[in-house]
Amino acid sequence: MKVFSALLLGLMVQLTFAQEREISGNVTDENGMPLIGVNIVIENTTTGTQTDFDGNYSITASEGDVLNFSFIGFATEQRTVRDNSVINVQMASDSSLEEVVVVGYGTQSKRKVTDNIASISADEINNIPVASLQGALTGKAAGVQITQINGKVEGGVKMRIRGISSISSSQEPLYVLDGMPLINDDESVSQAPINPLISLNPNDVESIEILKDASSAAIYGARGTNGVVLITTKSGKSGKTKVSLNTSTGWSKPTNKLEWLNAEEYIELFTEASTNSYGAEDTWLTEEGGYFDFMANGLDWRNGEVDTDWQDYALVDGAVQDHTLSISGGNEKTRFFVSGGYNRTEAIIRGNNLERYSLRTNIDHEISDKFDVGVNASASRTQIARIGTDNSFSTPLQAVAQSPLSPAYLEDGVIPNNESTIYYNFLMQEYNGDWDADIFRVLFNSYLQYEIIPGLNFRTELGYDNLGQTEEYFSGSLTQSASTNGYADANAVQSDKYNLNNYFNYFTTLGTDYDLDLVVGMNFEESSRKNQFVAGTGFPSDDLQTVASASEITSGTSTRTKYNFLSYFGRATFSMFDKYLFKGSLRYDGSSRFGDENRYGFFPAASAGWIISEEDFLTDSSTFSLLKLRGSWGVTGNAGIGNFASLGLFTGRAYNQRSALAPIQLANPELKWERTTQVDIGLDFGLLNNRISGELDYYVKKTNDLLLNEPIPGTSGYTSITRNVGSLENRGLEFVLNTKNFQTENFSWSSSLNLSTLDNEVTSLPGGDIVSGLNLVREGETISSFYVVEYAGVDPDNGDALFYRNTENADGSFDRSTTANYSEANRVVMGSPYPEFMAGFTNNLNFFNFDLSFTFQGEWGASLYNSGGKFQSGNARYEDNQTRDQLNRWQNPGDITDVPQARMYSTNGQQDSSRYLEESDFIRLRNLTFGYTLPASLSDRLTVDRLRVYFTGVNLLTFTDYSGFDPESTYDNLGNSNIQRGITFYSAPPAKTFTVGLNIEL
């Protein structure tokens, strides 16, 4: 019996193993395209696998086992193992699993959204090698203008959503990362801004939603006027643990260089200019020991021994490295995502570079069927080697003003001092000075969610944002600080923000045709800032570069400040029959920044939608997949002013070596919220099973009670007071068109086009015109319009610069006669710094294992004023090297040209006028990526799930008639002025970057 039992057991085991076999197959969608990452699990077991890049899978199963095929956005499929070893599956889209977008304090089905929300996925930004998160979004959303101020790696980034809605208050959107409003204050010790979001790693981002209309942004109330940018980072998913590596390296060049005079041309032009001013007998430039000899510093300029191209010293080849390693996974209870990133960017501006280290951990855990908790945390350190502002002679771009007769180095390698150059030689600062910024940022947001009853959840979130920034500057004894035997300063800023959200969410279905979603909650936010600054002079050695070694402390200060918000909010979303959609929201905001009489403000919003394609007359349509009409109205606010703008302030001062108090600000207890009312009418459409889809929107934004730093008479003892004065309006049209041009098994091509218009107008300004430099705020005009004298060209008889008088006649017309006397000409509005039309065009193509994507971006209708033109294109008025167009100067009676006669040290057309104002229209190939993914058969041999190599280019081509460095680069030294805009001054162009990269998934 024992022998028989053993034989019987062995036979059963053998039969069991005989039933197990390898099952393989391919999984595709309805169009035959392979689906990557489909989960295949044997029912009632934990055994499973996933499809590879080609949609193939393999799993060991027994006859009778049921295989479950599941994938986001598709209906789950089941197949039973019979006597077959190959099971191919075609999965159908599940219309019940709709695309979800992130909204304020929750998510919502995109199909039922009644607001205007632009959504950008990780696939659209992760492979764009730029250091800043905002830079990866350029050209991706209609009505959103994103501009990096110049080519510096840390340079400030301006994001404008549907125009400009304020004069003196903040014009930046509110950034919210995983529910945490971010600190977005420039903490640079100089007027050259540092992008506060430079510390974020773009590769950690899962999606970005831009809330553009008031209905979507009003849930953030007082800070929604300029739009809201919701950033969601990646999270883990249950299933197999995945390891992903994205690594790239590349090089950069300036997008553009200008053409300057060489030594021979410089000598010719300035000799002629001197002759025109002083006569041919005055040879002070060319005589032995004259000015040209001084510039040449002992070299023989007469025989061409010196011909320095200073631009090549200022603009150099850069480099970029970007590496991110992430691990994600989990089970039904716990999901995790961990990533580490490193970025090093060496700018195309000499001496400027950035190095960033980042770490992120996102964990979600289900304690029970009712309890969920989670933590999103990140830490980063960013080190920046900085250079001077655009108006600092130690900045590299100022070097292009030097004469080509001045050598950059002597034969022994020593950099010549200022005695042989027109301006300070920036190379002396590079080798004998230092300017470093160190940014350490910690972001933390945790949540606890509890299901009270089915459909009713309570969620509490606690967030913290800490931004610590230190800057140390040193200028040695051989630099411009030689007179003080060196100068050093140190600046430290510590900014903290605490954020607490408590809110209830209730969702219920009333009957079978009515859905109701309610959100009610409160928000408390407190922000604080501490700053310490100290400076000193006199150093015993250039090797000792901290303030501790200074012989004299020349200045020192410290400040502390704090403000907070207390808010209550609610939102109700209601749908009927899945086609009639309604939403309403209300936020009650209070801020310590405003006066006692107006500390709180109401910000309501409402929207409605009608999914016309769900009506009986369209449900069977083979043309319309979706047709939705929507409209929204809402009020948002702006609180981007000083922390104590409503209060009368005093400061401590020294008076005759005694402590004293001095008044510095007038009180305005009536100061209240700036309010923007916005109306949006939109149409969403999908045609031919969504092969063609898009959006069409028209909006009007009216801002009232503008927060304005209004100038007041100096006899009051003050220069300005913050008041609610005036109003302005933005209106525009936005169009988005998405198409699936080709969709076959081995080739696909999809496109996305976005177009937008913008019309900005100041509608009320009771105090009259505000003129700030070259810009004007005037009722009836675009905000920050250019206000300059109109240039009329050159008098062909004598080479004098001419200007239009533009004196208003009795009938309201303007006197268009010309004059050579600049003081007889009146300033007029000559253009706007803001584009009237913007476009973005993105294409994605896949051919077998190859992929190609590219984005074109364009702007039209804006102008740029070259404030450095009077020096660099000023027909030899100053000694600065000139652009080559100055060779086309007037020389003889009858010459027809726009360049006046060269007259050294004599003004002839260099005054501020439209001569230096140009249209800045452009079209730019913003980014291009070409990649190749190894077939599954090869990647399997390498034991990886996916391996892809790619090439990416950024700013590859620019088409423009603008004659300056770049149509987007602007002056970074405008400080806190929100009025002065559209001005450039020796401003560096952006980088043209080429990278090669590798994606590996395990």
From TrEMBL:
Primary location recorded for the protein, binned into one broad class: membrane
Pfam family of the protein (one): TonB_dep_Rec_b-barrel
Protein's UniProt keywords contain Membrane: yes
Stretches assigned to the TonB-dependent receptor-like beta-barrel domain: 410-762
GO CC aspect terms: cell outer membrane
Lineage top rank: taxon: Bacteria
Signal peptide, first to last residue: 1-18
Topology relative to the membrane: Multi-pass membrane protein
SUPFAM superfamilies: Carboxypeptidase regulatory domain-like, Porins
Keyword line: Cell outer membrane, Membrane, Signal, TonB box, Transmembrane, Transmembrane beta strand, Transport
Domain TonB-dependent receptor plug: 110-228
InterPro entries given in the database record: Beta-barrel_TonB, Beta-barrel_TonB_sf, CarboxyPept-like_regulatory, Plug_dom, Plug_dom_sf, TonB-dep_OMP_SusC/RagA, TonB-dep_OMP_SusC/RagA_CS, TonB-dep_rcpt-like
Location within or outside the cell: Cell outer membrane
NCBIfam families: OMP_RagA_SusC, SusC_RagA_signa
Family membership noted in the UniProt record: Belongs to the TonB-dependent receptor family.
Name of the protein in its database record: TonB-linked outer membrane protein, SusC/RagA family
